[in-house]
Amino acid sequence: MNKTLLIISREYLTRIKKKSFIIMTILGPLLMAALIVVPLYIVHKSEKETHVLVVDDNDYFLNKFTDTKKVFFSYLSGDINDLKKKCISGEYDAVLHILGGIQSNRSNLYYHKEPSLSLRGTIEEQMNKIIFDKSLIDSFNIAPPLFATLKERSQTHIVALQIDEHGNEQKSFTEINRIIGIVAGFLIYFFIFMFASQVLRSVLEEKTNRIVEVLIASVRPIQLMLGKIIGVALVGLTQFALWIVLTIGILGAIQLSTPDFFQLGETTEFVSNIDNQAQLTPADNSIALQKTNILNEINNFYSFSFSTFIIAFFFFFLMGYLLYSTLFAAVGSAVDNETDSQQFLMPVTIPLLLTIILIMPMAEDPNGALAWWFSMIPLTSPIAMLIRIPSGVPLWELLTSMGLLVLFFFFCAWIAAKIYRTGILMYGQKITYRDLFKWIKY
Amino acid sequence: MHQNVIREKEKKRRKIVELIRINNIYKSFSNHQALEDVSFSISKGVILGLLGPNGAGKTTLIRILNQIIFPDSGEILFNNKPLHRKHIEDIGYLPEERGLYKKMKVGEQAIYLARLKGLSEHEAIQRLKYWFKKFEIESWWNRKVEELSKGMQQKVQFIVTVIHQPGLLIFDEPFSGFDPINTEILKQEILTLKENGATIILSTHNMASVEEICDEIVLLNRSKKILEGKLVDIKQHFKKHLFSIEFAGTSSDFLNSLPENYKILSQQENYNSISLTVQITPPSQPNDLLNFFIPNTQILSFQEVLPSMNEIFIETVTS
User: Fold this and answer.
1) Facing residues of B310 across strands?
2) Which is more confidently placed, B69 or B251?
3) Are residues B170 and B247 in the same domain?
4) How many CB pairs below 8 Å do chains A and B form together?
5) pLDDT digits (tens, 9 = 90+) for A123-165
6) What's the confidence (pLDDT) of residue B215?
7) Angle, nearest 10°, between helix axes A19-46 and A3-16?
8) What is the pLDDT of residues B235-268, one digit of tens each?
9) Closest CA to B317 of B52, B19, B74
10) What letter does residue B308 receive in the DSSP assignment?
11) Beta-sheet strands, E only, within chain B
12) Residue B261 domain-assigned?
């Protein structure tokens, strides 16, 4: 068996057997599932139907309220002191007492158990509309049927359309693009830091354990370094795969146990919204036709190719990790303990930190000079390019950025290997930048 | 002509038994010369003591032999062929700075290190079982290294150094961290390895063990080789013509008539005998000294005192 493979398998196996790996692997999907499930659960909880009894002393609001998905209105007239007891018996969740009729600017809402937060808002909004419409009709003497027609005509939708270099139109969701870019950027940043630090600690461990000289009497230093970097990369990919599978598993289990859980009012509304828009722009009615194909649906939902994004995400994660882990390995080999590593890590991590600090301005203007340059410079491109991709990046820019990253990685790996092979044999010395340059030249 | 042929034959004969030939090695680091024109050879089946004060270049030379670093100039022949990557599997190296993965299990780790030396997993387990039994540490197979005492860790390190049965073994300070009992066990193991045909380089500051087990010596000082040869030859070369004599009785008056070319360096009176250390100035011979004593007293013991390696070391390094 090839010795590099032997090193890779040791690095891989000892890591995935660690308690911390197992805990992370279980906690990750639970956290992710919780991030999806908890908000839905809260929505579900607040989605409980609310029955409101409207008591209008002047009967003006009789049958004027519109039922929503959650709130249902009933009307009764009588003594409010008797009727308001109906919310104690549970017959109604709340009793709305409108005191002053159409001129009223004050009403009372009686309840026994606290209703959802949005209920008061819903009622206020509806009442305001009713009063405002009434005032309009009265002031301008508009016939009610005409008023209804006018109202319907004045409903408007805004459809954002992005035009690419070939003149094709695509619906664009700038906000979503921005959020996806930012989330992807943060994820890459987090993973690069997490796994590159593991490489640093591992190099340092072998050095402080004094096992490194035993090892490099058997294998070349570069084999040891690469074996470690590849082993940790495989651990990262395994963790990703497990996270994805387990998250889908958990969500699938929830779906099976409560089939309606993901059938959300808002989501359906959103999808039907897209359908409406598709009908509004006949040039692009593919959405409705291809609804059966999930990937296509996702692709069409986002204004960019989802598969390109996924491929780019893995590419930039992997290359970004490789680039930083070689530099981290070099730093780990040059120092004697983790505290000393800080001074050499600083210049290495500054590009990464800078990109994260500037993530908002870049997301605001994904095609501006700042984002453009950062997405080309190898040390920052793994994050910056991911921010830009959802807003559309010309293929040549993407390929150039990828190419530069790969070239720069080889350059850094060459330098790191030179520092590494000397550094691992240096014990108990305070290493300066001058020493590092000597090792590179040497 | 005839002599030339003999010389060639002699050369060939010597070459066959030579395992390592080091020719004019130079190595410098950024701020100092670590090795300067170092040449010597190591014959098969001997234990060579590589000695020298701290910073003399021993570890640099050992690392060059292990191809961890490379010389600036000069060449090294292994079995008459230039030292090559493939020779790594025929070398076992116990570095001075050595350790193990603390969190890994002993057996698992030993298998890993043995496989890095080119053994198959099956072979590694077989041989490790044998060695673990020999050192009586079988019960530690499934324990983590951090639970082991330092001496036990050293045993494990020794085992993984020799497990692939290399032709050349390099031990850098092998006895550090061992108690006297284990030091003795280790010495015996090293001698057994030699009997089984291994060539051994022993780098240590423990001069007593050098005298006990080394056949040959190479002494480095300030990056240069300053002494080389068989241990017995070196001792002869550095001898001070000292002899110790013990004779019966408590009277030493006759010593007043000792001729001038014998100098008494020390005198010790025992219960009913006297011990002396006498230096003889050549061309006087030990027999002449005995001839002086025999008529005067009863000799209990007479022995030449050869310099210890410790003395030779200090003398050559400080001169």
Assistant:
1) none
2) B69
3) no
4) 58
5) 888 888 888 888 888 888 888 888 888 888 877 777 666 676 6
6) 93
7) 50
8) 988 988 899 999 888 777 788 888 888 888 888 8
9) B52
10) P
11) 18-29, 32-43, 47-51, 73-78, 81-82, 91-94, 168-172, 199-203, 216-221, 224-230, 242-248, 262-269, 273-280, 299-305
12) yes
CATH code: domain of residue B168:
3.40.50.300
Asked if residue B253 and residue B212 are part of one domain, the reply reads no
CB A218 within 8 A of CB B116: yes
Considering the domain architecture, whether residues B55 and B179 belong to the same structural domain is answered as yes
Calculate the average pLDDT of chain A. 81
Task: For residue B270, tell me if it sits in a domain.
Answer: yes
Domain enclosing residue B311, as ranges: 240-318
Q: Which of A211, A425, A435 sits opposite B101 (nearest CB)?
A: A211
Does B101 sit within 8 Å of A6, measured CB to CB? no
- The 3-state DSSP class for residue B37 equals strand
Give the torsion sign (CA, A259, A264, A268, A270): negative
Q: Which residues of A touch B117 (CB under 8 A)?
A: 218
Phi/psi for B63 (5° steps) reads -65, -35
Residue B310 belongs to domain with CATH number: 3.30.70.1290
What integer best gives the mean pLDDT of chain B? 88
CA A239 to chain B, closest CA, distance in angstroms equals 22
Contact B116 A14 (CB under 8 A): no
A214 and B30 within 8 Å at the Cβ level: the answer is: no
Tally of domains within chain B:
2
User: B178, B205, B236: which is the final residue of a domain?
Assistant: B236
Same domain, B177 and B308: no
pLDDT in tens, A328-377: 999 999 988 888 888 889 888 999 999 999 998 888 888 889 999 999 99
Indicate which of A214, A222, A418, A441 best probes the interface with B, i.e. most B CBs within 10 Å of its own CB: A214
Confidence band, pLDDT 50/70/90 cuts, at residue B216: very high
Min Cα distance B13 → chain A (Å) is 31
Dig out the tokens for B59 from the structure.
């570890």
Question: What is the chain A residue with the closest CA to B64?
Answer: A217
B136 within some domain: no
Partners of residue B160 in chain A, C-beta under 8 Å: 214
Does residue B258 share a domain with residue B202? no
Is residue B13 scored above 80 in pLDDT?
Answer: no
- State how far the Cα of A340 lies from the Cα of A328, in Å rounded to an integer: 13
Residue B108's contacts (CB-CB under 8 Å, 6 or more residues apart) are none
Q: Does residue B145 contact residue B101 with C-beta atoms inside 8 Å?
A: yes
Q: Which of A206, A218, A425 sits opposite B116 (nearest CB)?
A: A218
% residues pLDDT > 90 (chain B): 50
DSSP per residue, B240-300: --EEEEEEESS--GGGGG--TTEEEEEEEE-SSEEEEEEEEPTT--HHHHHHHHTTTS-EE
Query: Are B168 and B87 contained in the same domain?
Result: yes
Residues of A in contact with B154 (CB under 8 A): none
Q: Write down the CATH superfamily of domain A49-149.
A: Periplasmic binding protein-like II (3.40.190.10)
Among B24, B48, B46, which residue's Cα sits nearest to residue B219? B48
Task: Looking at the structure, tell me whether residues B258 and B191 fall in a common domain.
Answer: no
- Within a domain: residue B47? yes
**Which band of pLDDT confidence, cut at 50, 70 and 90, is reported for residue A32?**
confident
Residue A177 and residue A245: Cα distance in Å, rounded? 25
User: Would you list the domain boundaries of chain A?
Assistant: 7-37+174-441, 49-149
Same domain? B246 vs B210: no
Q: What is the ipTM of this complex?
A: 0.80
pLDDT tens across A371-408, in order?
999 999 999 999 999 888 888 788 899 999 999 999 99
